[in-house]
User: What shape does this take?
Amino acid sequence: MKKPENSIFVIFGGTGDLAKRKIIPALYQNYIQGLLPEKFVIVGLGRTEYNNDSYRDIFREWIQDQSQMEEFLKLVSFQKLQVDTGDDFFALKEYLDHLHLESESPKNYLFYLAVGPDLFGPIVNNLGRAGLCGKSKSTGWRRLIVEKPFGKDWVSARQLNHTLLQYFDEEDIYRIDHYLGKETVQNILAFRFANGIFEPLWNRNYIDHIEITGAESDGVGKRGGYYDQSGHMRDMVQNHLLQILATIAMEPPNNFESKAVRDEKVKIFEALASIDINNIENNVIRGQYSLLTMDGNKIKGYLQEDKVPSGSKTETFVAMKIFIDNWRWSGVPFYIRTGKRLPSRVNEVVIHFKKTPHHLFTSSKNISHNKLILRIQPDEGIVMNFGMKKPGEGFQIKNVSMDFHYSDLTSKSLPDAYERLLLDVLNGDPTLYARNDAVEACWRYIDPILKEWQTNDAIGLYSYPAGSWGPVEASRLFENKDQSWHNPCPSLTAKGENCNV
Ligand code: BG6
Assistant: This one.
């Protein structure tokens, strides 16, 4: 594989949680696999007093596998920087130019904004003033990775886009949505567009409804402060879940260039049918997990979590019925269900095909829709469900399944989404990043719901016990008796408690 061009990787928030959990481990994995550029420097930025040595020490704590750590650490250095101090950015520029002279490479700088969203604007303004932004480059490239949340509503997302675009060209702005970097989400595209047998069925003529589940067993943990301001709609639906939906629903692009792929996704976001706000609970149900006491053990409810204000009305669960107003999907409901403190961490898409028009076998009357399950995580794989004749007398129909597990394809564990995404930026490929029009279209769709929730106290916030599949009210969304939630088990093919395969 061709190596990316030599470059300097600058992390705002270089000592923060995201650097610790995602960015540095991903860079280290890429390093071990020889995928980083020939000449590469990582510059961590932060307010804390570190020097290069003490900064490298924290990497030794962050990463367990130390096999190539000492070599890797030679790439790493630290600069103290206050994001609201313009002079620090001039000092940063000097430092980067000095590193660049040492490495004899073009001035290819990548700035990763791994900080709170309030700081995105000030940082980019200061990068611009110091002559470090894309539009002031003389040689090499300047790229910007922007973490989520990208704005908190449509207006703020537009303002943020406006600020970024003053200093960077759209092609140099990488808005991260780590779900797009997940191997299994990418595989949805391969599954759909590399096979002849599924695509002809992939439309309103053959599909009854589609379910997308984003379940997490964890609660909000230490992130109560952030999460209470955000809520689950902003945290998971506006970005990750809608991106999965678009990957499932988009038309085949003309080619696999980033523009073609992203154009098709935007068309889906723009075709999302507005939710009827006057009947919002026919389409959107929100919930919040409550304390569970079982066998003397307690699982905290949301209101007992750290930094969550008492009486908070922030949702930790969202179920939605979404329609796409276009030729392919008209009338097909997409049911989304996502929440914290559900029974297990499972992400999957279930395509429920239409039933046969006429039941030849009495026992097939009650047989469920044929299902195709695309499992994003864990136990990544694909399962096809269909009816077969039970051996023996008569015509008894039984549901059986055919399954594929990623683990059969490779003995290696699947790469973390960040590994792929960071390499893509270094290679200048934005296909798996969200474009400005896509982000804005998603906010435009979600905004009226958030506004209604905020202003209309009559709308329910339904409580569900921690560890359950969410409020029972979520089942109100279904169009008919044949539809119901598929409660996925952690294993793709083995039954567990409280779930079905
Ligand atoms: C993040 C959200 O974007 O995605 C978190 O902020 C959520 O609240 C996480 O837990 C889920 O990601 P994953 O990869 O663990 O499914």
Q: What stands out?
A: The chain has a mean pLDDT of 93. The first helix runs from residue 17 to 32. The domain at 180-494 is CATH 3.30.360.10 (Dihydrodipicolinate Reductase; domain 2). The CA atoms of residues 78 and 199 lie 50 Å apart.
